[in-house]
Amino acid sequence: MVKKYLVRLSSEERVQLETVVNKGKEAAHKRRHAQILLKADEGEFGPGWKDEKIVEALDVSLSAVERLRECCVM
Prior knowledge:
By secondary structure, this protein is mainly alpha-helical. It is 62% helix and 0% strand. It is built from four helices and no strands. The longest helix has 13 residues, at 11-23. The relative contact order is 0.20.
C-alpha cells in the first residue's frame, strides 16, 4: 500500500524530537509519538522505516502510526 502521508522532518524538527526522546521528563505518550515520527521520517536525515517495522520495534498499533503520520503531516 502506498503511504498517503509522508513524514519529512527538517533538521530543527529532528533535534526537537530527539530532545523529547532523550530528555526523560516528558510524558510517555509524547516520547512515543516522537519516536514514531523519528522512525517514520523519510527526509534527508531520517531512516524512513515502514509502518510495520515501527509497529514491531515500538510495540504500538498500526492505526496509531497511521493516525500520527496523518495528524503531523497536515
